[in-house]
Amino acid sequence: MKTTVAAAASCRLVRVVALATLVLSGIAQAQDANTAMRVYTLADFLRFAPTNAMDMLNQVPGFAVRNDDDQGRGLGQVTTNVLVNGERPSSKSQSVFDQLGRITAENVERIEIVDGATLKIPGLSGQVANVITKSGAISGRYQYRTMHRPKYAEPMWGAGEISINGSSPGFEWNGAFTHGAGRGAAGGSGNLMDGSGTVTEWRDTRMQFNGEFPKLSGNVKWRSAAGTVANLNASYNRNYTDNSLDEDRDLVAIDAIDYFRDFDNRNRGDGHEVGGDIDFALGPGRLKLIALDRLNTNEVTQNVLQVFDDASPTTGTRFASASESGERIGRGEYSWDGLGGDWQLAAEAAFNRLEQGSQLFNRTPDGGYTEVPLPRSSGEVTEDRYEMILTHSRTFASDVSMQLGAGGEISELAQSGPGGL
User: Fold this and answer.
1) Could you give the C-alpha distances from 290 to 31, 34, 120, 130, 277, in angstroms and in order?
2) What are the contacts of 35-40 at 24+ separation with CB within 8 A?
């Protein structure tokens, strides 16, 4: 069954958000000499021994990198305050921190700190860092991390990143393999008390977390002599996490039976993203087309056992859940000059979905499991979203600029499965 949520006077959810909204994105106030363009080169950071562009930006006075933390619902306008060669990052699975970390310091020609409103990129405001790279020979970097904690945690022997990049006039590329890992643990004794402060139960607890997160990613950029620019990026990642919580539970009540509780949580998943864009001259302006597809899957299993100190049968439950989420985005941006300023018309379509199913089982005295009915434990939610924004930017003086935007979006959500809404 599939139903669509009703809204307003219609029987369908057609949610109109700011269909004729006029947004004053920002009128920059007069700036003093300290807020004009600042330019930094590698020589300015040598005393900090930087290895990549991220290390250099971390030392720029008064500037902090802002990543795009909103990873849902399409691409939208630029929100991060870092550009690379005047362009926004077109990947959602790779953060700006990852991308900057793969640009070696030797390949940074300069870093420009500018007022975002002067860059003719809708959505940018405040201080923006434009990292300008230069062509060079093949180079790379590696980072190795290990962690060892006393008592309960297992050692983490191998984590880090290996990246390699190269460029020539008109062509740039980079690739990276990242192995993230995490270890956590705790343990000790404790007790439970009732409302009067009387101890009702003593517990000896051991907790552990082990996680492995390998990821492979790559980017290619091509620029033609005529000024056409194309980017292609792809990534694939996996995740392996295991949590355990073991507790010896000693109950104070005379007729209570002490027991050992064993909880194990296992999570396995993977994800991929493929995206790209092409920017070329068309008529009086330039057209940029962007496409992105990504998919993530996840499987979780949880087992809980209660092993009693007497001859009572072991009890427990088992829970299993599988989910899949995906997103496909198509976006077009047409920019041109006119009426004394810069214009951009952007249109975007984004299709998101989340599908999930769960099962619950009870342990039987013979060690088997019987499934417990879970009504409404599976279903799918989808969203089809369309957006269009017209933006006008102009500069009135060297220290006063304006960006004005008007646009709207239409979004339709639907839920499939039992009790669909």
Assistant:
1) 35, 36, 18, 21, 4
2) 35/115, 35/127, 37/112, 37/113, 37/114, 37/115, 38/112, 38/113, 39/110, 39/111, 39/112, 39/113, 40/110, 40/111, 40/113
Phi, psi of 48 (to 5 degrees): -95, -5
- Sheet (strand 38-40) strand order: 38-40, 108-115, 127-133, 82-84
Of 416, 420, 389, 390, nearest in space to 17 by CA: 389
d(CA 23, CA 20): 10
**pLDDT tens by residue, 251-269:** 998 888 999 999 999 999 9
Task: Give dist(CA 226, CA 217) in Å, integer.
Answer: 29
Instruction: Give the burial class of 194: count Cβ atoms within 10 A of its Cβ; 0-12 exposed, 13-18 middle, 19 or more buried.
Output: exposed
Residue 27, classed as helix, strand or coil, is strand
Measured between alpha carbons, how far apart are the two ends of the chain, in Å?
Answer: 10
Say if strands 38-40 and 139-147 run parallel, antiparallel, or are unpaired.
unpaired
Neighbouring-strand partners of residue 235: 217, 273
Structural tokens at position 155? 């050692």
Q: Which pLDDT belongs to residue 81?
A: 82
In tens, the pLDDT along 266-277 reads 999 999 999 999
